[in-house]
Specification:
about 40% helix; binds guanosine-5',3'-tetraphosphate; Rossmann fold; alpha/beta
Length: about 290
């Protein structure tokens, strides 16, 4: 990925501001609910959260689990749990798994509840904040979790000034606006995966190149999936396969020229919509 193409809409000024906001809000809360995209759990994580949320209880949500490989979801859950986090796979859009979060909150905050009790404080609500990089489903999750209580959607760095809390049940309060972490990538593949899940601008690469990267990943991790979806031969280099997809989907311009950008967009849309199958792009570390 060339430097000039790394247009991700995050500039140092934004990052500093978002980080400062997040630090200010951290002081108010007991629990951080970190939302990740289950298709790329590692890439959709900003490692700075470990520093920002140190001393806080933590829950990791593998969201969009409906689009990711079910077997890989299990592996990633085990991975995060082995690292000491409380992890859960959910589908915030359909509300699946969301009802299990209350139990997890109690578990994650057990020590705090105990500490309060010893000091004679009972029923002080746990205050939580949802955090994550853009497009992982933070707002959708807040809506699903809070029920009818509405939240504002849209990506603002950090959290807005006038803080509002959503009360969930007797002893949980959730900051109504999620904390937005900036996508972080020093590694080319991480940048590509973030573009594939729509967390950074597609334009980090020419669209055909991004599509070719996706073809490579799918061929490697899910052989046969492209054949099944597009009825194409999978043997050959990615650009050839993109041409085959263009032919198979009749992406033709004037004088029968192949419209590769159209085929690339079609492929990316199919992937993002889960139509090529449930896929996880990252291998879980052993
Ligand atoms: P953000 O606050 O983290 O930026 O993300 P947001 O909730 O706005 O969600 C981003 C997109 O991801 C939305 O799609 C949302 O519907 C979708 N989404 C969120 N959670 C899930 C999930 O668990 N599974 C699936 N399949 N999709 C999910 P959109 O295209 O922007 O809007 P819409 O067309 O769905 O309304």
């Amino acid at each position: 990925m060339s430097e000039e193409k790394m247009n991700v809409n995050w500039y140092p000024g934004h990052m500093t501001k978002a980080k400062r906001m997040m630090q200010e809000n951290m002081v108010l809360i007991d629990l951080v609910i970190e939302v990740l995209d289950a298709r790329t759990p590692q890439a959709s994580r900003n490692p700075d959260i470990d520093e920002l949320a140190k001393n806080k209880s933590r829950i990791v949500l593998l969201n969009k689990s409906d689009l990711a490989d079910p077997r890989e979801n299990k592996k990633w859950m085990e991975y995060f749990e082995a690292q000491g986090a409380h992890a859960l796979e959910i589908n915030a859009k359909a509300g699946a798994g969301v009802k299990n979060i209350r139990g997890l909150v109690e578990k994650a905050c057990k020590e705090k509840i105990e500490r309060d009790r010893k000091r004679g404080i009972v029923n002080r609500p746990i205050r939580a904040m949802v955090v994550g990089i853009p497009n992982v489903g933070k707002s959708t999750f807040i809506n699903a979790f809070a029920g009818k209580a509405c939240t504002k959607t849209g990506n603002k760095p950090g959290v807005t000034k006038g803080k509002q809390w959503i009360t969930i049940g007797k002893n949980l309060q959730l900051l109504d606006t999620p904390g937005i972490l900036w996508p972080k990538f020093e590694d080319r593949q991480v940048g590509i995966n973030l573009a594939l899940i729509g967390s950074v601008n597609d334009e980090i690469l020419v669209i055909e190149e991004l599509a070719c990267e996706l073809i490579e990943s799918i061929k490697k991790r899910y052989p046969g999936a492209l054949t099944k979806r597009y009825e194409i031969d999978e043997d050959g280099a990615a650009p050839t396969l993109l041409e085959r997809i263009a032919e198979s989907r009749k992406c033709y311009g004037k004088a029968e020229t192949l419209l590769l950008d159209k085929a690339a967009n079609l492929l990316l849309d199919d992937f993002r919509g889960g139509r090529i199958g449930r896929m996880t792009l990252e291998e879980c570390p052993k």
